[in-house]
Model the fold of this input.
Amino acid sequence: MSETTTATAPAGGTPQVSHISEAVIRIAGNSQDGIQAIGGFLARLAGRSEQEVMTFMTIPSTISGGPSIFQVRIGSGEVLSAGDEADMLLCFYQHSYENHLGSLKAGGIVLYDSDHVTEIKPENLQKYRHIGLPISSLVVEAIGGTGRDKGKNVYSLGLIAKMFNLDVTKLHRLLSERFAGKDPKVAETAIAAFNGGYSHTLATAAELFKFKPGENVGLNQIVMGGNEALAYGLIAAGVRFGAGYPITPWSDIMELLRKELPKYGGSFMQTEDEIAAVSMAIGASWGGRVAVTGSSGPGISLKTEAIGWAVMAEIPLVVVDVQRGGPSTGMPTNVEQSDLNIACFGGHGDSPRVVIAPSSVEDCFYTAIEAVNIARKYSTPVIILTDQGIASRIEAFPMPNLEKICQDISPDLTPVADHKPYDLAATDGITRHLAPGTRVASGKYPVVTGLEHDELGHPTGSPKLHVQMTAKRRNKLKKLGADLPTPEVFGPPEGQVLLVSWGSSKGPVQEAVKQARAAGDAVSALHIKYINPLPNGLEKIFEAFSHVLVVELNDEGFYGYGQLGAVLRARYCDPKIRGLTKVDGLTWKIREILDRVKAMTK
Amino acid sequence: MTALSFPSETLTRTGNLNLAPVPALADADRKGLTKKEVAADHPTWCPGCGDFSVLALYFKLIEKRKMHHEKITTVAGIGCSSRFPYFVQAHGAHFIHGRALPFASGVSLSRPDLHVFVFGGDGDAFSIGGNHFSHTARKNVKLTYCVMDNWVYGLTKNQTSPTSPLGYKSKTDSWGSGDRPINPMKQAIAAGATFVARTTHTNPNHVLQMMEAAMDHNGFSFIECLSECVEFYPGAFDGANPRKGGQFPEVPKDHDVTDEYAAYKLSEELMPGKFGIIYKVNRPTKNENEAKIVATNREKFAALPDWQILQKNFDRMK
Done:
């Protein structure tokens, strides 16, 4: 809670009100307590209040129950990460209290349900401000005996609203919208539970808070999660067919597409397995309109053979990989960036393909559109390498101009005189297929194939053709690499340390740069979105720094580099490039990055 | 705000050949295709291979039914018989081993205007692709699947296949196969296929009859066509070839093709077994079910451009 200023003097036992520019609130309970819902309401309220917001959540990979947290950071200015330490912790159980007290900053507020949290160590009372309320009993008082477990979260939202002086009118509206269409009693009970919490005097709190007005004034913001943004981006891009198999955390995307695509005349198929999903999507792509498949971890391994076919046959395709902790079943609900290698190199043979990694929820929306357009333009599979860190977090971002962005990518079935799909003399060297249904007046029809082929797609064992076709598949993507914009350095373009990030690490790395520079260290950052092929010009950027540290959530491997680090080492042969990695399944804390930078550059 | 590096653009169809659009032809002005117009590469099969006759009858089907080149899609996986698409002058796809059915389903479900024919062998269909066979059948995706069953792996030169009979000596079972072979008819019926037929390459008229009936069936139509591998399993189907002293017993005239138990019973014997349509029922296709979902959803939105449908969702997320 930076820049705290006391506005109102304490008067007659009522807590004083401090004005704050941001706050990190962590809610800890069990997975069935509906704490994600509270986090969601807070995030959407921030979006509607012209503030920035970022959330972080953990869910257990057990089938039902288990500890769960939701952390939300609301800022009147820029928010780059979900925050290292919480300003306030709301905990429902003894275990939530014990496990998460450490995430609270010294002097922070812990609001706990005294019906369940009964043991408080005296030394904790010294370090944190404790507010104990019998939340479970109070909920029963507010809304009656039944369904109290459901009311606990909304009651707590009321308490948070009171503590942070949140806009009650907007929250009432959000609650009514959320429960609209259901039994009106449900919405009434929710409002009653909320009002119960909000009307609590919080007399034992020494201080209440009020956010300064948001800086994103006049911005029409929307609030959603990364997986949602990615799925809607695909729809905006004109994708109307997809196929998938359920796996965490990819499933959200397929569920959303399954539900939404029919509104646009499209459909999404749940298939018998991962291989069927990728095969079906490729079949539909060949049918003339770029289709999508996706998965996480193990599912991507299963899809690699078919992706290799799409590389060979030069079929446009979008593959979403929502990375999670690996290898094998790994840590299904944790974050990791360890699929870069399989995305770039997975599969047998030389099979160049495109890999792009979005860095935020907003970027998920736009990256999906870019992926579709690259797939179409270069007739190639494009892998969107997102991760659990973005997939499940909620952010507010400016409303996209949908009228301008939405595109129609229906196939062109106009008859042509003649056609060679794998034309070696094509001016831009790029294959473009005719969708089936297109009449070719010459009567010579193309075949798409995974066998090495001649220009019409017929099999060949010719050494010369294999050399030419391999070069063709490689060169079209080299051309894409040359067309990519060189990324811009965040901070001054020269200095001591350059932190290189990709994917969801962008925000924390940039926040680390801000803090380091505030402390007088010459640290800058470079974010790489286009992973494969890489954009040109990175070596020039690296030249201006003494250390290039590649920050990624994966293992340092045999030789001390993470997966992007190894690619950059291979590409630039620059001994300055080193890996700054971790695999604890959690997103980066700013402190962690700064400490590691200090240790590595001593 | 994120700027798009790759905004939408109108893509041209590349090539050094004449891709200039040509005028569309009215159906009335188009003649049926001749065999010469439908044949592409000369098949790479061994002389005497049963697959030649299946190919010839596919050509005949196209001729007889006056299909147009561009409306035919020929899809296959991997195997000797899966080379099929190269030999047909039509939009073709030679996909990976065992996955022809999901690929073809993607075509069928996204392009209802096309005829989708899938060709493959017993290994492709029942071994590596076994899962897809069951699920494509139960989902009743509209396409025709013709499995040229030769009871052996031919392309990889004589290994045991899922339909090799007990005792068959192959390079992977030099002492004779010990695994109970799959019964393709029973497998198809149990999986929920809505059209199940059996034929053999030595009876061309019958093959064509089955192909026509399969093509006219609204749903997943499956034909098992015995197709001899003269190289590795010569004489496998002599028992079903009257010219070699065998028999060609057709499905009895009084067989009720909608009776699942009767169909199952009829499929008991593997050689010579029965030939003809064993099972045929009408059940809504996956294509129809999806189209219905789309139609219901479109009712509310049909009048809106796509971006406004999306805008409605986004407005709710403010």
